[in-house]
Amino acid sequence: MYLVSACLVGINCRYDGKNSENKIVAELVKQGKAIPVCPEQLGGLPTPRASCEIVMDEKGNIKILTKEEKDCTNEFAKGAEETLKIAKSNGIKKAILKSKSPSCGCGFIYDGTFSGNLIEGKGLTAELLIKNGIEVFTENDLEK
After folding, report:
1. Does the pLDDT of residue 144 top 90, yes or no?
2. What is the pTM of this model?
3. Mind telling me which Pfam families this protein's record contains (predicted)?
4. What spatial distance separates the first Cα and last Cα of the chain, rounded to whole Å?
């Protein structure tokens, strides 16, 4: 059983109200082999919502902010915790998450400048899942 980003299944839960459907991931759910989650919705954020990126403050603390500098860190952290609960309660050991996302990204995320630049890193949910022994992939890994 996999845990998968709901937007990859075709559920309109991205920040812009759209989805990022991936046929392979959607098929896993149809076959009963995956459970879709949206950490941002689980954290209480609406859809659509302002785009967010991970930003490091002057003290080295990570925050998740909108371009207008609204702090959404608590919602992202709550969503990560709720996602972990779902994974643990279902004995899930692998996740396929949306690349570049401040929640789900793994490998590369946006750099916090809202300029489209990518840096090495992980989203809050991906990081928490990995710390708890869950192997995380992105939809890009499926193409390899």
Report:
1. no
2. 0.95
3. 2-thiour_desulf
4. 20
